[in-house]
Structure of MbnP family protein:
Amino acid sequence: MKKVIYLLCLSVFLFSCSDDDDTKKEVSLTMNFTHNWEGTTISSLGTSLDYTNANGENLSIERLRYLISNVTLRREGSSDIVLNGYNLVDVGEGTGLSYNPSTTISPGTYNLSFTFGFNNEDNQSGIYADLNTANFNVPDMMGGGYHYMQMDGKFMNSSNDETGYNFHAIRAVDNPGMNPTFPQDTFFTVNLGTVVLTDDSTVEVQANIAEWFKNPNTWNLNTLHQMLMPNSNAQIMMYQNGQDVFSLAQ
């Protein structure tokens, strides 16, 4: 009789363990952001004119920071998992280079994407204390909200003089002033492709900064280096060029 009871207890124990093994735990996702210029790593910023854009202009990168939001995981037959929140990547300060949203995820194979900048619903003036402190705001006369990116430095102009540039991406705006209008949304979705999450996972998101200046618009810094925020055509060109900046490291 004791042997029968022992076998029954052992069966229950093994069955319970089997159930535990089959139960999928939740996992987390970490995104590491790295930066390069046509394959050459950008690990620090400075005043040297180390980079040459598609238009043949030598330039420096002295500040580079940009915003990503609404990381989204999608798989067939399931609702999208949107990891609400945002991350300000500041290459010069070395902050935001690793982003670990607090939401956990069931293991599986997903399509990974994020929004560059804020969508219009999230792009509301004054509500993000850290972005306010970082002076990432856009003036109300240009629609308010926040920058999507700030990239600043110098370039050698056609007169062979060093000239400052401010490559700032925001929501495209016309008629700056009391009643600005918005010809086109210029935030965009970055589709990184497929990721497989089995345990707590880390992926590398690569940003080729040279792409901002070359595809599909060959950027001429001699004519487009300052006052780009109120220039809706320039903002739309940035939106177009930004489509190929980010990729998932293989």
User: Anything to note?
Assistant: Residues 51 and 188 are 26 Å apart (CA to CA).
